[in-house]
Each structure stands twice: as structure tokens, then as C-alpha cells.
Amino acid sequence: MPDQDGIADRDRLTLLYVIYNAQLVRHLRAHLGTRWPAAEDIAQDTWLLVAARLDECCTGDDEAFAWIVELARTATLAHMRGTRRESTVDFTDFEAQLLLPPAPAAEDEAIANTVVLAMLDQEPTEMEAAA
Q1: Consecutive 10-residue averages of pLDDT for the chain (131 residues)
Q2: First vs last Cα of the chain: how many Å apart?
Q3: Environment class of residue 54 by beta-carbon count within 10 Å: exposed (0-12), middle (13-18) or buried (19+)?
Q4: Do residues 71 and 46 touch, judged by C-beta distance below 8 A?
Q5: How far apart are CA 68 and CA 70, in angstroms?
Q6: Whole-prediction pTM value?
Q7: Phi and psi, residue 127, nearest 5°
């Protein structure tokens, strides 16, 4: 039973984690098939459920793995429901619109600069001066 600060629950949760986490991750990886990379995330979600429901565990620490596996099943289903809603978006066309136009060749840039500089050195025509 926990004391006022919940120390006993925290100690029990720590003990369960130390004893069963590696076994839980192996169990999840074995049962997830091609989705085995999600095992660590689901294990974390499972430990959150264990922490929230620790007072419901009526077995000793040596026999608690079956109860933890039941919570892992709940966490797995919740995880799978969440990933089913995820969809992949192809941003290739959108990215192509964002690309800058190609830069002009260095020779073209040099010629354009020379022309502009030459135009600046000329005296304005009568029409340009009137404007």
C-alpha cells in the first residue's frame, strides 16, 4: 500500500520496470511482426498504463507480467488505431513550385552588367531628360 507520498507505488513501479521492461519489449517485437520498430513506443505507453493502474494489480511482482501484457495489448491497439489514421503526403509537386528559377550563366550576367554600366555612363537623351 502507498504511504502519503506514494513512495511504495513508485518503488513497486520501478521494480516492475526493472524486472519486466526488456521482456516486455521482446514480447512486443515478437508479436508486432513487420511493425516491430514500434515496440519501444508501445512499451512506454504500457508503462504509463501500469503506473496509472498499479493499484489494480493484485498479483505479486513475480507474477505481474501477465497483467502487464494485458495492458500492453491495450496500448498496442491504441497505437495501431493512431497509426492507421496517419497518411503519407507527397510534397514533390509543391516543392517544385517553391524552387527558384535557375541562375543565369556567369557570361550573361557579365554582359548585362557591362550594358547597364555603359548605359549609366551615357548622357541622357532629350526624352529621358524631359521625363
Answers
A1: 60 91 94 88 94 85 87 92 67 70 82 81 66 55
A2: 93
A3: middle
A4: yes
A5: 5
A6: 0.57
A7: -70, -40
